[in-house]
Amino acid sequence: MSANGFTKEEVIGALHGIAAEMHDRMAKGEPPRMILPVRTKQNIAFDKKLGVYKYGKKKSTRDATSLGSARQLLRALHVSEFIEEMIDAGKSSTLREMYYISEGWGHGKFGSQNESNNLAEDLEIVTKCMREDFKLRPEEDGARIIGNITFEERNRKGEWMRINCRDDVGDSGYGVPYNVESEKLKLVDHDVDFIMAIETGGMFDRLVENGFDEDSRCALIHLKGQPARSTRRIIKRMNEEWNIPVIVFLDGDPWSYRIYASIAYGAIKTAHISEYLATPSAIYLGIRASDIMSYDLPADDLSSKDIQALKAELSDPRFADAEWQNEINLMLELGKKAEQQSLAKYGLDFVTDTYLPEKLAEIMGR
Q1: First-to-final CA distance of the chain
Q2: Domain 8-137, architecture per CATH
Q3: Fold match flag (8-137 vs 144-364)
Q4: Are the CB atoms for 239 and 246 separated by under 8 Å?
């Protein structure tokens, strides 16, 4: 059973429904089509009930009246058949493997990896299933986790393994699998007060080496930059099922702001499943633009791309509240950005002895 409660049979039935609708339209003499939401920041809106950003009402129609759209519909049918074969065989595939498999699809082969990835997301939207239901895996690994939390993970032999993410792992931590739903991963127990998601590997390793997880009774999660879907999903599951606060500790730049937005509000590319991936209560700790001044941090000048990204965020609905508008405008005013590891200016222990305790006290005191 997946996050949205679909069985394998229901997933296959949803895929068959795409082909059936195309067939019915052609039987009536009408061109087959797929109707999809416009997937841009101009077409995301806050869903008060779910507490996340979802696609709005703007739609685009992909039909067989143009060669490009007809080819996309052909690819959709090929991908649907490929997914059904994998489900029946108990196999899975990476998105990259699917891209290469399409070489045998004639006119339906993909022109780029991006086309392949986008079509997988299109099928999620149309069927209301998730990529994990389709047995499609990303190339990138999920997060690393260190902390006193216990999971049970089903291995490839179908056996359940109990793993404590502090006592049963090495310094690199527990590696999050691509599928973190209950049929693959069970949340068993924890003895932590909060979860801290960390952008960079260097900072994650610093906190692990300094014993921050034990001293502060927390679980540390290395996001590996822009977090994989499985990373965002396991963060949400731990937050909801265990009622544990989530703190997000990132670099101070526009790209890190977007990482936070994907965790807390939902990413634009996956707004159709934000309710499964986003953690609305996640709190942004830093690095903040004000930290560059308050802690006199070593900083780099904003590049033209940085400035362009910050200005785009000012019109992004996810950054519409006053606090984020002030944060973004302050960074533009300073013209500077700073990395997490710039805190090492004051020594290797400064981040765990001073910066994080001060920031956490500020957050908890709100």
Answers
A1: 39
A2: Orthogonal Bundle (1.10)
A3: no
A4: yes
Q: Give the count of beta carbons closer than 10 Å to the beta carbon of residue 175.
A: 12
DSSP calls for 197-223 = EES-HHHHHHHHHTTHHHHTTEEEEE-
Instruction: Fill in the DSSP letter of residue 57.
Output: S
User: Which active-site residues does the annotation give?
Assistant: 100
Q: How many other C-beta atoms lie within 10 A of the C-beta of residue 192? A: 22
CA distance 84 to 102: 15
Q: What does the block give as tokens for 298?
A: 């070593």
153 with 43: CB under 8 angstroms?
A: no
Q: Do 231 and 178 meet the contact criterion of CB atoms below 8 Å apart?
A: no
The domain limits of the chain are 8-137, 144-364
How many residues make up the chain in this entry?
Answer: 366
For residue 338, the cross-strand partners are 252
Distance CA 197, CA 102 (A): 37
Under 8 Å between Cβ of 159 and 175: no
Task: Express each pLDDT in 82-131 by its tens digit.
Answer: 999 999 988 889 889 999 999 999 888 998 988 888 888 889 888 888 88
CA contacts within 13 A on the Cβ side of 53: 23
- The CATH T-level fold of domain 144-364 is Dna Topoisomerase Vi A Subunit; Chain: A, domain 2 (3.40.1360)
Tell me the percentage of the chain whose pLDDT exceeds 90: 57
pTM over 0.90: no
- 313 close to 319: Cβ distance less than 8 angstroms: yes
